[in-house]
Amino acid sequence: MLRGMGFDNTTLVYVAAGKIYKEQKYMAPLKQMFPRLLTKYTLATPEELAQFKRHSSRLAALDYTICLHSEAFVTTQGGNFPHFLMGHRRYMYGGHAKTIKPEKRKLVVLFDNSNVRYGFDYLYWLVFIFEVVLL
């Protein structure tokens, strides 16, 4: 989706999440597309994170703060975290914060196209980019 919106491999991407199940396996495609992928665990040293380890709300506050001050924010789920964050960013930036809230039901149809997923046929890729922009 980010590639379809024009973000390239030089884009700094921060993933706000807890520990990711089988991270090496499931994050590999994203890391390949965006080598500058970061999390709180890659930004901070273990010593710096030690004071937060036993406090999940403090770890979430780190993610919140980084996302609050980011150039753009992409939400992929519902819940309090993204809703509060979107409102806070709207307030801080006078309604001009770049926030991307994809329509997942429409996006899954685009992702389901095997021509886009495997081989990246140029014509299908252009159609994919056009469709993502229309979302």
- When the domains are counted, the total is 2
- Global morphology: globular
Count of alpha/pi helices: 8
Strand content: 5-15%
Helix/sheet category: mainly alpha
Gyration radius (Cα, Å) is 17 Å
Strand order of the largest sheet: 1-2
Order of helices and strands: EHEHHHEHEHHH
* Residue share in helix: 40-55%
As residue ranges, the low-confidence spans are none
Major sheet: 2 strands, parallel
Span between termini: 11 Å
Mean pLDDT: 82
Number of distinct beta strands: 4
GO biological process, one term: fucose metabolic process
Pfam families: O-FucT
Keywords: Carbohydrate metabolism, Fucose metabolism, Glycosyltransferase, Transferase
Family: Belongs to the glycosyltransferase GT106 family.
Please provide a written account of the structure.
- It is a single chain.
- This protein has about 140 residues and is mainly alpha-helical.
- The protein has 2 domains: about 1-100, no CATH class; about 105-135, no CATH class.
- The chain contains 8 helices and 4 strands.
- The chain has helices spanning about 25-35, 40-45, 45-50, 55-70, 80-90, 105-110, 115, 120-135; strands spanning about 15, 35-40, 70-75, 100.
- It has a two-stranded parallel ribbon with strand order 1-2. Strands 3-4 form a two-stranded parallel ribbon.
- Strand 3, helix 5 and strand 4 (about 100) form a beta-alpha-beta unit.
- One of its GO terms (biological process) is fucose metabolic process.
- InterPro entries: FucosylTrfase_pln, GDP-Fuc_O-FucTrfase.
- GO terms for molecular function: glycosyltransferase activity.
- Belongs to the glycosyltransferase GT106 family.
- It comes from Pisum sativum.
